[in-house]
Write a structure and sequence with these properties.
400 residues, alpha/beta, Isopropylmalate Dehydrogenase, Immunoglobulin-like, 3 domains, 6-stranded mixed beta sheet, 5-stranded mixed beta sheet, 11 helices, 23% strand
Length: 400
């Protein structure tokens, strides 16, 4: 930690829930505590108890305690009104530190929204506390994983309420908010892909009218205002495109709960440990705005390739999948070509030389059946040979 490290206010969450243990485990790691100047807001006794319960090394850091808050003891694994009131007070305190400029940001642990409601707390969760204290009337949640940004249209609403919330006015306001903030953060021309509500983007009104009556008019109006927005895109393909075709989608607007699902799936590409001889699968969305379909000389050409490289950039395995006939991709101008999702399946460790346990980078390419790249893709992180880095996997020995 240096003198320039930002001060982060870290709240403990509901003391009857998992929050104190998550906080304790994080703070027990030197690499975490070195990232910033962390000020824990909560109960010293709660943090000490969690530290001791988990048998963590060292000692917990000091805790900022505030007056007028229930002191416990708090039950573990049970709904507690005192726990809800304490957690709520800690969030408010940390938020006020940020608003006063005394903290650069706040980091929060989970709370129990049911306990909030039963304790008579009007705020549903963190977002409502921040909205009320800051006076902001238009507040949205954004999830980040790698280069993918997912901005929710609605938060903490029932499914029925969330569907009713999909109006032209609300969608346009969310697109404008996203554009304004990313422009302010240094993204000169943010591209915003708006996801559909209904399956298959309603199939032109066959499965619901929200896309035709609400979402599409909002996107049209946003474009008229000079915003680079597109949609509504089918919700499954928009995330595939955002994850793999990073030049196509950068930001997505969707319902709160559903937005978490593709983010969680994306994280598996980077963090899951694959077992040698097991199947390695990833999903990609392709769209064709270059080569006419009839120019391919045989079915399935060119196949998709997956290249596994070690930390020094050396090629460990080259695998090919010709199950997708790319002649079937519809040709259209950039931004207009429909996305076709395709799931590729490979077996890691079977190709000589046998892939040893370790951490590897995964690259995607399109080219010859021996894995030689041929076609340039509109993707970032190229290795100079028309292979494009998707992420990282860890391969472990079977049974470990």
């Amino acid at each position: 930690m240096t003198a320039r490290s930002p001060l982060l206010a870290l709240t403990q969450g509901d003391p009857s829930g998992i929050g104190p243990e998550v906080v304790a485990k994080a703070l027990s790691k030197p690499e975490v505590r070195s990232l910033a100047d962390l000020s824990v807001v909560g109960s010293a006794q709660v943090l000490f108890d969690a530290w001791r319960r988990l048998s963590l090394p060292g000692a917990p850091p000091p805790v900022t305690e505030i007056q007028g808050v229930p002191e416990g003891p708090f039950p573990i694994g049970q709904l507690s009104l005192d726990s809800a009131r304490a957690a709520h007070a800690w969030i408010e305190f940390a938020a006020k530190l940020c608003l006063a400029g005394e903290a650069a940001a706040m980091v929060t642990a989970p709370v129990n929204k049911d306990a909030f409601q039963r304790a008579g707390i009007a705020d549903t969760g963190h977002q409502e506390v921040l909205s009320r204290l800051s006076g902001a009337t238009n507040v949205k949640t954004m999830l980040i994983s790698g280069r993918l940004r997912c901005m929710h249209l609605s938060t903490h609403k029932s499914l029925a309420e969330a569907c009713r919330y999909v109006t032209r006015e609300n969608v346009l306001a969310a697109v404008q908010l996203t554009h304004a903030h990313f422009a302010g953060w240094g993204v000169p021309s943010p591209r915003i892909a708006v996801a559909a509500l209904n399956p298959h983007a309603s199939d032109n009104g066959l499965i619901g009218r929200e896309e035709l009556d609400e979402i599409a008019p909002a996107v049209t109006e946003a474009c008229a205002l000079g915003i680079d927005a597109s949609g509504p895109h089918p919700a499954d393909s928009v995330f595939n495109a955002a994850i793999v075709l990073l030049a196509f989608v950068q930001f997505g607007l969707w319902l709160f709960g559903d937005g978490l699902i593709p983010l969680a799936l994306l994280l598996t590409l980077f963090f899951v440990a694959w077992t040698i001889l097991m199947i390695f699968i990833y999903s990609i969305g392709y769209h064709n705005y270059g080569q006419p379909a009839g120019e391919h000389d045989r079915p399935g050409f060119p196949p998709e390739g997956a290249t596994i490289k070690d930390e020094k950039g050396g090629i460990v395995s080259v695998l090919a999948d010709d199950s997708l006939d790319m002649r079937t991709l519809e040709v259209a101008p950039p931004g207009k070509a429909p996305v076709k999702s395709h799931e590729s399946e490979f077996r890691v460790g079977l190709i000589a030389p046998t892939t040893r346990p370790g951490t590897y980078d995964v690259f995607v390419s399109v080219g010859k059946r021996d894995g030689t790249p041929v076609i340039a893709l509109p993707l970032a992180d190229e290795d100079g040979q028309r292979r494009y880095r998707l992420g990282r996997i860890e391969i472990v020995e079977k049974g470990k």
